[in-house]
Structure formats: C-alpha cells, structure tokens
Amino acid sequence: MGALEGAGCVGSIAQQLRLRLDRLRLRAGELAEPALARLAGRRLALCLVAVLTLLFVVAGGLSPRVALLGLAGAVAFAAFWRKGDSAASAAATAAAQAGVDARRLWRMVIDAVPDPAVALDPAGRLVHANHLAEDLFGTRRVGGHMASMSRDPDLLAAVEEALASRQRQTVELHGRVPVERRLLATMVPLGHAAGLLHDAPALLITFRDLTEQDRLARMRADFVANASHELRTPLAYLKGSVETLQGSARDDPAAREVFLRTMGEQAERMSRLVDDLLSLSRVEMREYLPPSGEVDLATVLSDVVQTLEPMAQRADIALTLHSKEQTALVRGDYDELAQVFQNLVQNAIKYGHSGGKVEVRLGREPAGKPGRWRIDVADDGPGIAAQHLPRLTERFYRVNVAASREKGGTGLGLAIVKHILNRHRGELTIASTLGQGSTFSVLLPEAPV
Ligand code: ADP
Q1: Ligand 1 pocket, 413 CB below 6 A?
Q2: Domains of the chain (ranges plus CATH)?
Q3: Which parts of the chain have pLDDT scores under 70?
Q4: What's the CA-to-centroid distance between 343 and ligand 1, angstroms?
Q5: Helix (H/G/I), strand (E/B), else coil: 449
Q6: Can you give the pLDDT at residue 94?
Q7: Helix 64-80 × helix 43-58 angle, to 10°
Q8: What per-residue confidence (pLDDT) applies to 147?
Q9: Helices 253-286 and 413-423, interaxial angle, to 10°?
C-alpha cells in the first residue's frame, strides 16, 4: 500500500513537472513568434545596417568585434522593440499572435480529450499528443512520423488512407506487450479546421481501450455459463428420477423412497443456488450505496453463533465466541453483516474436522486501539493450499467441487461476503496452513462517535 501511494505521489509530481514544461514551451513559442515576425518586418532596415557596418569596417577601420557587437544589438533591438512598429509588422505580429492563440486553443482541446489522442500534420508527422497518448506510447518527439509511435501496419495504413481520402477511418489494434489489450483507433481528418485555424493539424487520432469492456463481457458470459451448469446438474437428476419413477421403479416402494429423498435434496440444492444468486445480485446492486444504519458487531456475532450452535453440535464441533468488547459499533446493515459471519462460521463448520473446534474472536485492530474492528473465524480443519487463497472470493471458485456440493455449497458464499464487505468499506483476509486449519479475518471501520 505504502509503495503504491509512493508511486502515485511520484506520478503526480512527474505529471505536474510535465505540465509546467509544456507551459514553458508554449510561453517560449509565444515570445519567439512575434519577435520573428518583427524581424521579418524590419529586414530591409537590418540589411541597411549590415551594409553600413561593413562599409565602416572596410573603409573606416572599425574593429570587426565592435561591428559584430553592434550588429547583434541592432538585431535584438529590431526583434524586441515594440514601439514604432510599422503597420505591416504590426499586422504580422497580430497574425502571429492569432496563430499562437489558435494553436494554443486546439492543443488545449486535444489535451482535454478523455482518451489518448494525437494530432498529425498532412505528412503524418506528430504535431501534438495528449498525456494519455504519451502514457500509452511513451513520450515522442513532435515532428516525428506516426511510425515512431506505433509500428502497427493496420494503424499506419489507416492513417495513410485517412490523410489521402480525407475520410474517417477506424481500426482495431491488438497488443500483447506488456499486457494483452485491445484498442479502437478512430482517425478523423480535420480538413475544415485547417482552413479556419492557423497551423491546425490535418488528422486527429483517438484511442479507446476496450480491454476492460472485454474483461467484463467475458466475466458475464462465464458467470451465466457457470450458473446454468450448476442449475442443469440437479435439474437433469430430477428429470431422470421422474422418468425412472414413472417406469421401472413405479411398483418398487423401496426404490421410490430412495428416489424421492434424493429428488428432495436436489430441489433443495437448486433452491439454495437460486437464493445465493439473488443474494449476490442484490448485494452487487447496493455495493456503491454506503449503509446508513449503526450495528453492534458483538450482537451480530452472538446471534450468529447461537443460530449455528445446532449445526456445530451435529458436526461434533465446539463453537465458541471470544470477545472482551461489550459493544462494537460499525456503520452497517444488520442482515448483511449477519450474512457475512453466518457464511464464514458455516464454512468453518462445514470444512472443519469432526471433533474439532471453531473460534470466533472479536477485538480491535491494531490490538487495543480504536480504529477498526477485527473478527477472526478460525477452524482447525484440513486448511487450504496457498495457491487457492487469492481466488476463493471468485464466484463459483471451489477448492474441491465435489466436496463443496456434498456439503451443500454453491461456491457463491465468499463472493457474497466480499461484496458486502466492499459496501461496508471492510476487508477480508485469509490465512491457512495445510493440516492445521484456516482463519478468515474481517476488518471493519469503527463507527464514528
Ligand atoms: P461454498 O458454497 O462452496 O462453501 P464459498 O464461496 O463459501 O463456497 O467457499 C469457496 C470455497 O472455499 C469452498 O468451496 C471451499 O473449498 C473453500 N473454503 C471456504 N471456507 C473454508 C474453510 N474454513 N476451510 C477450508 N476450505 C474453505
């Protein structure tokens, strides 16, 4: 976290430096252009001064060093002395100033584009790139060809086509380095602007990053496929059982009993899955609405432990709650927080070992100091291998699918926990040692007094 903040800080300092440099570059351009215009307007007078100085050197014996100094003074004077500008040079200065303003304007517009954007001249050379484009392609020299930014043949062909035909072009770019990404580049020729604005670019290219959109679409498709698969399995079993009961098992009371019992279990499984799916969609919808109520975690935990005591007894597991706190207030929703701890304690009982124990501990983090509440749910079951830990809160992720199904699991419990904790600005950490057990820890900010 510290390293991330540090990187963010360095990034923002670099950004500010870059902005200042740009401003300096612009300012230098603004000063240089009127000076050049004045020099152009006074070039006849300067020629005369140069000829006279040469005469003084050749015929009058003036030292060349003094002559050079005098000439430099005359050039500086002609460049920067505003008063007495001739009408022509005043017009040239005004035109140059208008050009500077126009250039500044379209650069500002390109900088304000919320996607990476670059502007090219009619020869395909870079005129300006906003910071997002520099982040995407790395800083590039103004005046360099587009090929120095990207060697993608489709992009370069589309740039050429757009410049030649003056027609809008779009092209998809696929990159694998450093990470896989898909970009949509749109090229818009600026023919009209070139007529209206001094020195305006010929082509504007914007890049839209479609990678995140693709990832979300893939996640949605995977989720639908997983949910359908989970529902189809018990459904297939129910259909098969009905056919058997109508056929071969019609007159076999013992077989009928077995089939009906298993059908009941499968229907139960489907109903749990539908409940969890609905629950997940509800918490996802509300994830960005911070809860407004006040909840006492000591009460929530004591209610959850009491509710799950019978389940622990059936599994021959000693379930205990340890808390030195009388009250532990958080901003929250009672039902959602109860669902979090119910899920964690149920898992600890389900995946713990018979004859073992499950401990629920409530305290402060850091110990003894106000700030955040820490709730540990610890079991002494078989534990979870390290490679599974980062994926446990993914929907339908299970260490052992068969074991989870056998224990009535849907693979959605920890995903629901994660979303509820996000809504409560909480955190979930999981520590586990194979053969020794697992501890699921929840951190929640203390309610402001
Ligand atoms: P499930 O409905 O399968 O229990 P969860 O999302 O609640 O789904 O948990 C995901 C997976 O995490 C479980 O299938 C199980 O493999 C693993 N898991 C969760 N809690 C524990 C635990 N206390 N001990 C061992 N494994 C656990």
Answers
A1: yes
A2: 21-95 (no CATH), 113-209 (3.30.450.20), 214-285 (1.10.287.130), 294-445 (3.30.565.10)
A3: 1-34, 37, 82-100, 140, 177-178, 192-199, 368, 449
A4: 9
A5: coil
A6: 66
A7: 170
A8: 87
A9: 20
**Residue 427: how many other CB atoms lie within 10 Å:** 16
Task: Evaluate if pTM is beyond 0.85.
Answer: no
pLDDT in the model for residue 195: 55
Q: Of 311, 398, 419, which is best to mutate to test ligand 1, by the most ligand atoms within 8 angstroms of its C-beta?
A: 398
Which pair of tokens denotes residue 48?
């005369």
- CA gap 315, 301 in Å, rounded: 20
Q: Which two tokens stand for residue 44?
A: 């006849």
Quick count: other Cβ atoms within 10 Å of Cβ 291?
A: 18
CB of 392 closer than 6 angstroms to any ligand 1 atom: yes
CA nearest ligand 1 atom 7, residue? 413
Return the C-alpha torsion angle 250, 256, 262, 265, nearest 10. 100
* H helix or E strand, kind and range, residue 364: strand 357-365
Q: Is 136 in the pocket of ligand 1 (CB under 6 A)?
A: no
